[in-house]
Amino acid sequence: MAIAKVCGIETEYGISVVGAPDANPITVSSVLINAYVSEAAGRVGWDFETESPGNDARGFSFETPSNAEMETHLVNTVLTNGARLYVDHAHPEYSSPECISPRQALLYDKAGEEVLRRAMKASRRFMPPGQEIVVYKNNSDRKGNSYGCHENYMMDRAVPFAKIVKQLTPFFVTRQIICGAGKVGSEAPGADDVNFQISQRADFFEEEVGLETTLKRPIINTRDEPHADPTRFRRLHVIIGDANLSEISTFLKLGSTAIVLSMIEDGLLDELNVQLASPVQALRKVSYDPTLKGVLETVDGRLITALEVQWSVFDLAKKYFEHDGIGTVGSVEEVRQLLDLWEDTLSRLEQDPLSLRHRLDWVAKLSLVQGYKDRHSLNWNDPKLAAIDLQYHDIRPEKSLATRAGLETMLDSRDVGVAMFEPPKETRAYFRGKCLEKFGDSIAAANWDSLIFDTGKDPLRRVPMMDPLKGTFRHVDGLIRSSGSLVELLEGLGA
Fold this sequence. Notes:
Largest sheet: 6 strands, antiparallel
Strand order of the largest sheet: 6-7-8-1-10-15
Number of strands: 20
Distance between the termini: 32 Å
Structural class: alpha+beta
Protein name: Proteasome accessory factor A
Low-confidence stretches: 65-72
Keywords: Proteasome
Number of helices: 15
CATH topology of the largest domain: Creatine Kinase, Chain A, domain 2
Family: Belongs to the Pup ligase/Pup deamidase family. Pup deamidase subfamily.
Pfam families: Pup_ligase
Radius of gyration: 22 Å
GO molecular function: ATP binding; hydrolase activity, acting on carbon-nitrogen (but not peptide) bonds, in linear amides; peptidase activity
CATH class of the largest domain: Alpha Beta
CATH architecture of the largest domain: 2-Layer Sandwich
């Protein structure tokens, strides 16, 4: 029986400094986040003690002390909405709180964009005259470096990981046609003839399965770090997605994946008879073909298009919904909306991809770039087109081409504003966020699965949160509100 698909997004943002193109990105990222924290939140550090990024779902482990040691010295804080805001190597990163549905995860991802906008504004008073920090929600710096937009989904630990790999790979290879962010050109060796591609990340994947996230990136990441009870839960760490500005693309990306994972748990994707002969090559082949006409070879010698793979998965998802209602992916109404959008999007991609220029990022960008190219009679390798590509991802509303592209929206801006500060009510993020709001001065550190309180006496008190569906509004709101002190809160939790 499939379990609730608690999910969230981690976004590493691109960063530059107007007036100082050679500025140190780690320093600049630290200035950016410190500026926001100083204005909007108290500083609560991140607890690295229980983190284990070297654990592999295939049953072994690697020691990774150097990365953890470096990260402890970078800016790293937790927000009252339950999110994590920090410097990840050379990038500012916003990791959304745990969310109960794709729509809620979309909301908190958009709240992250607003956090970074406010951070840019706050950072101006710390920058020298003539310099300004600019943030981009993209995945490549065009110098051979890629940074991620990772998704996380809660899964049942009992599902064999080999089954996840087998059934998820063809979906991930082809999912980009609904959630790719689009890219002018290519950074992959030997791909000089690629004018425009669907995904920003496809160039940078080299393996089918593996633990790495920065080198030899795999289609299926094996990091086994559940941030929850490891005997019950798995956190599927997805590194293959693009960073989306389109709300529809993000919703489809999260929702379709959550449904597919539920089908894997319930054994309903066993009917998908698609195994690609060369998934890494297929990933790039799909990305390099905005016409969606190219074919992929399966291990049994059949030829199939990316659209056909997606239709096969969708048909099973629709059958799943009609039979079971899919109670693991938000409300019935949300799942119905998701399936309707997914079906309509595939139909339009089949008939005329450009009809989705107000819905999908890659189509919106292609429309903008192609229009400019044709109006000015430019070649695809003209730097102006690369500049348009980058400007699409500028999160400053007055500069962003995504803002001007007329993309369809799903969210109310007032709800996004609230989500910057208020945590989701349906997951343990509620306990984390509300404790930070009320007892922040007494929290020594935090992470996804615990809070460490300082009562003023030794030792510090760690409160574990090993079930993402505990610590919700229903579970703890009354206790937090009625506790006049940290001691009362801890006594109440003990009782």
